[in-house]
Every structure is written in structure tokens, then in C-alpha cells.
User: Fold these one by one.
Assistant:
Number 1:
Amino acid sequence: MIRKLAALLAALCLLAIPANAARQWQLVSREDFAGPLAPHWTVYDGSPKCCLATVWSPELAQTRDGRLKLTATRQADGAWLAAGAGAAGWPVMVRTYGKYVARIRMDRGEGVSAVALLWPKSNAWPPEIDYYEIAGTDGDRVRETATLHRAGDNAQTHSSYRGDLTQWHTITLEWLPGSITYFVDNTRTGQVTDSSYIPHEPMWPAFQLQIDQDKAGNPLISTTGPVSMWVDWFAVYAPAGDSIGTAPVEGRRPDWWAIAVLGALIAAFAGVIFVRRRTR
């Protein structure tokens, strides 16, 4: 009897585990950047609070040959302009949890940083998920870093990948209630499972360039430019079973029926063992 119950318990565990461990995804939307940049992308204008040396110009965010092209370029007076584009105005892209996949490459050029990120809908920073980031100090583009900024104290986790980032690579972020996982060309490069670091609020995706600066906010750049970040395509997925409409989705719920049955079976198993020991 005990052996039969043990076998049944093991079988139920095998049935229950894939429901949480084997994640399935459903496509929310894909952008191939065919034709002019679609109006659901908002091109950046002005300077971010963090980076006074960066001045974004809408004209420098363009599509070319079916790709998004974000460019940083030097002006006649020595100042630099850069580009960025975000999906804050694209309702299905403002989500809580999902899978984000982009095909990206970056031109060489010391002093120009590039990032693919998720930004909070509330605009209350942090949190922030930088799942592809190349520092301006890496002018040859041989290292890519993924950085997670924790809400509240801005504590950070980092994962890195080394390779020729002037070539095309497929960059993937999987953001779930219990984990954030990074991939380059389908190879996992890092994972965060500490729930205190994981955002649990709606966020929207963006791609942007920044100009490196010194402590006074002056441009710190040696390249003569121009320097471009290229995005061939971009796709976003929701966990299977979640809504893919305009409202932000929540994380997948546990399979409570499996948990209840598993709990009952464990209790029965324990009861049989207890009775057998009492009758010996």
C-alpha cells in the first residue's frame, strides 16, 4: 500500500511541476520596422535628468531597410545629439511580466552608450530593467551587460556577455513573478530569483542611446561619429493564459487544484505510515 501511494505521489509531482516550471508564451505583438516608424513608438526629445550631456533629437530615430536606426551624431559646434524610442503609448506593450526579444547590433564608437530597457509606467524610478546595455567606454563593443535596478533603494544586480556586439545578436529577457532571466542567442547569461529585486508593476520597453559625461555633465567622448544602434525586429510575449489585451497583465497564478490534491495525498500518505507504525 505504501509503495502504491509513493508511486502515485511521485506521478502527481511530475504532473504538477511542469505547470509552473515549463513556461509557455503567447505572442503579444511583433515590430519589424517596415516603412516609417509607427506612431505607437514615441521618439525621445530633450535631455534625461540622469545625463545632461545627452540631448535627444526626434529626427535621429528612423527606420531604414526594415530596421530601427537610432543615431548619435556630432554637431558643427561640437555638441552631440542622440536618439531614443519608447513604447509608452502602445497599450499592449505596457505590461507586468513578459518575454522581450530583440535582434540588435551596435556600431563601434567610444563615448556612446546603448541600452534596451523596461521603464515603469508610473515614471517613479527605480525599478528599471536594462536587459541589453553597452557602455560608452567599450568602444569596440565586446561586452554587453544586463542590469536590474531594485525599486526603492536602487540596489543592482549585473550579468554580462562577451562577444562581437557589432554583429547581430538575439537578446531575450524573461520577466516573471519569481525570476528574471537573460539570454543572448538562446544561451542563458544570467538570472535573478530574489523577489525583492523583481518589479511587480506595469513597465514599457524602449531603446535608446546616451552620450557619456564627466562629473560636471560635460560630454566625455572620443569618437567623431556618427554611431548607430540597429534593431532588426522586436517581439513581446505574455505568459500563456494571461490576457494580451490593453490592460496590464498579472503574473500567472499557482495551480491551486494541483496543490490541494498534492496536499491531500501527502496527508494520506503520512496517515498510512503512522497507522502502520502503530500496529507493529
Number 2:
Amino acid sequence: MSKNLRDFNKFFYPKSVAVVGASVDPKKTGHVMLNNLLSYGYKGKIYPINPGAEEILGVKSYKSILEIPEEVDLVIFTIPAKGIVDTMEECGNKGVKAAVVHSAGFAESGEEGKRLQDRMVEIANKFKVNIIGPNCMGIMCVETRLPWARRTTFPEMPGGVAVISQSGGGGGSFVNLADERGIRFSKIVTIGNECDVSVLDLLDYFGDDPATNIIFIYLECFRDGHRFLEIAKRVSVKKPIIIYKIGRTDAGARAAASHTGSLAGSIQVYDGAFKQTGIIRAEGIAEALDIITIFEKVWFGQGKPAGDRVGIVTGPGGPGVATADACVESGLSVPMISEATKKKLSEAIPQATRSNPMDMGDFGFVAALKEKDPYGIMTGFMEEDENIDMAAVMGPGEANPGGFMESILNINKSHKKPFIVIWPSAGKEVEECKVTLMRAGVPLFLTPEGAAKALGAMMRYKKLIKKLEV
């Protein structure tokens, strides 16, 4: 079936949603889905479908889709696989154009499940119904307050990151972690067996979605290599695509095949395709979170750095050295500061090291951050230095976290060049301050290595899209 990508808006901007399998039992997915629609603020019309109930959670219930007196944009299935085939026919006759099938028991379960899946798709194709799933956790649109089922994390504020995940559990856990980092989402899709709507269809859609700036894919495989190359190259020039590829080893590939019926393929082949198309592959979840943070909060937040020259500002000396190493190892430059900067620094903070990393010298300054603000002074000097394109500010461990947080919030309000914060420490007050900074939009990283790799990925992307645009 040729996909009309405009119809995909029915998934994310539906004026009405029917839940087939809505239940009075709080343990069942149909109950959780309906409760989430009501609790998370979805403003459209909601139609529970359950032949044995008059109402569920205070909402009138219907025996079938055909009984609903008005149009239905999106149908969410939570009933067993065998019951979906007949109900899909009803959806077609009702004029439904979008369906999300949470239910398992399809191709991933064996031959009988595959026959059911093929029949479901055949009916959907006849009526031009787009299907996401089956065997998935569902979808979310933060803007329209459309929630997924079986998950409790629902971001409060919309943002520019779209997620496509071939793993329901993996994708859901990733969103939980990203939400803690202050990353904000536009739309989230867990795609399951990919019986109809594919990862590539969604990549194509998100490439033109005005609400999406960054695309993250939790990937097992692409099923159409030629189409992938065409879509990915076109989209990556407009928006960064970050992929976390699972099934990289023989053991992982076997697990992927049994999980969703996917064939994972050689990681060397994928890496070659990624390089051709400008895609960034994250080697792990932590790295993916760091890379998304750098694009969301620097590239699309503070602005693109003019170059790769990093100025490091630190209180503790050792972590500053570690950051310099990590930056150079990630392909960045850590140049010497200018003579003019050295002169200004000597006058403002005589104990400071007149170099890059710029070390305040007397760690006693940390106790007086609010009064003397060495971090603000040194970061300002780095921003004014013609040899520096962006600043990396190293946190003071667990010493005076509140004072450091205030300094960073002030820098965040007035910075002239992009800057990031690296704070490799812990403790109750430190963690509370980190959350405040991340919620304020500060690009914060937990390790020098993670920060440097993310900066390096951003600069490689900047160079690569110039080549792709030619």
C-alpha cells in the first residue's frame, strides 16, 4: 500500500479516539489506556468499546465501532489478536484511517499469528486504514496530550524530539530516562511488528513534521535498504537522526528475530549506510541521551557553534584536564586563550591559571560563588576570546552546589556563545541542583567523556550535512 503521509496526522492529532477493549478491570491495558486518555488531558472525544459495559470510568461505552454516531479518527486495539480481524472490517466500514494495535499474538508468535496478521493487514489495505503495531506499547503526542498505554511517564511540556522505537519496553525506558534529563518530546511511537506502517514511513513523516527537530530511532533493522538510503539522506540534511542500533552481534540478532520477527543485519553494513546518509549512531543509551541533549539544547537551543574550539572553565584541576583529554580524543580543539584574555584574567582573578583549561586556582572561591562569581567571570572571558567557539564549565563536585547552580543560571540568561555544563558528582543537593538546571534548559552532562563525545558528534554532523547539501 502506498502511504499517504498526510493521513498519519490522524495518529497524532485525532479529534476522536475509540478504545476497543476498554475495560472496567484496572489491571487490563484497555482500562489503563482509557484512564490515561482521561487523566493526561486529551481534549478530543473518547469512545470506549466494550459489549458488556454501559459506561467505563464515567464515559458512555458502545458495543461496537459501528454504533458510534460520529466519525472516529483513531482506534486503539487492546483485545486479543483473534478478535481484531473482524473489528478491523468494522473500522473500514466506519471510515477509520488510523489504528494502533497493542495486542500480541501475531507474527511474533508463530505461523498462526502470522496468518492473523496478514489477514488484518489485507482488510486494512482494502479500506486504506494505516496500522501501527501490532505487539507494541502504542504512541504519544505531547502537544495533543494523546498518551500511550501501560506507561506512566507523560512529559508535561512538548519539545522537538521524536522517538521511533522497534522495542516497546526499550523505547519506554528510554523516554523515562530522557524525561529525567529535561529532554522534551514532540511524538513517540513504539512500532512493534511493523506490519503496515514502518520505521521508514515514520522517518519520512517526521522529516516534514514542523513540531519535530530531532529524530531518535531505537532500531532493530530497516527492511528496505534502498528506501532507507533515499529517505535518510533527504531527512538528515534537515534534521539530526540519532540511532541506537540493537542486534549488533549474532546473539542480539537471534534475539531480535524472536522478539519482533526482525532480521537485524550486519552492523558494518549499517555503519556504512549511516555514514552515507549523515546518521549518528549512538553506542549506548547513555551516549544517545548525551547526543540528543547537545542537539536539543545547543544546536536548536543556544545556536550552532562557529567551530570546534572548546574553552574549559573549572574549579577542580583534575576534571578540567580530563575534559581537555576527552575533547581532543573526540576530534575537538582545546586551543590556548589569547593574550588579551590572559591579561583580563590576571586582573580579575590573580590566582587563576592563564591557560585552557582555565582553572580558578584557589578552590576557596567555591565557598563564595555568589559574592565573587568566578565561574561567571571566567566563562565570560572564554566567550569574549576570539580563539574560543564554545565553553565547557566543570562543576565543583559537591562543594556549594546551590552557589554553582545560581552561577550557571545567570550564565544561561546572558551567554554569547554556546556553553555546556559537566558535573560528575552526586549527593542529594547536587542531584536537586542538576534537575533544576536541566529543567531550565541547560545542557548538562555527567562525565567529561559523554560531553565531549556529544560535542564531537554535533561537529561531525555539521561538517557532514555541508557535504550532503552539495
Number 3:
Amino acid sequence: MLRERVTVVPLANLSRVTREVRYARAGLYAGLGALALGTYFGTGLFVDAVRVPGGSAPLIGVALLFIVLGLAVDFVFSSAADSARGRCRVVVVPLKGRVLCVGAVDPARADALLAAVAEQTRRQGDGGNGKGSAEPPPSPPAVTPAAPEAAPEAAEA
């Protein structure tokens, strides 16, 4: 059974908050594979075309076509994969406790969240007055864990 859950990580307990994209370079590797295959077969055909007495113009044309297609597929996979991605995940690493991951997040919303966390962290480090503070931020109050039955099960959307 799937259920929603609210987890609060105090700002003082944050170690790291990052935005990740799964398989970020898959298009790059697929493009490199296409480039390697196109170059391999194109170069092989080109060498065969040159070895034929008098040369073979159609075979040279097919060889160049393989090489150009490998380059084109590499370009498409390398550049289109970045723009077609569309979703990312946000990973929250607290100083104590389990790592949290929120998936299928719009990249613009993830960037806005990261900017808000960075701003809030900067403000807390300044002591809230916008000036550098020599005092460390106050430590958070001790929190006792609630019983499992009292844990909230619905989260805000």
C-alpha cells in the first residue's frame, strides 16, 4: 500500500541537498556508440573502395554516408537527451538520519527549492540581520521521536 508521508529535516541538520538527473549521460554514450559504429563501418568501406582498381565511387559514397550518419546520430543523441529529460530528483542528506529522495520533480521547481534552502541557510548563518555574525547559530532543541501510531500519514501536495 502506498501512502504519503511528511518528513521534516531541520535546517541545522542538513548536510547536503542536491538535484540529480538519472542516467544524465545516457545520450552521450549512445551517441558515442553510434559515432564509433559509423566510423568503423564507414572507414572499412572507404578502405575497400580505395583498394578496388580504379576506385569505386558508389562504395566511397556509402562509406562517407556511414560516417556522416554516425556523426548525425551522435549529435542528436548528445544534444536532444539534455532537452528531453524533463524530470529530476532531489536528494536530501541530513547530518543524522536516513537519506531522503523525492523523485519525478520538475527541474525548475527543484532549482527554486535549492535556491530557497541556500537563501535560508545564508540568512541563518548571518543571524537573520544580514550582517556577518561571530556567534554560531543556536543548536536546535532536542526532539523525541513520536510513537509510530502518532506519525502523520498525509502530506501536503
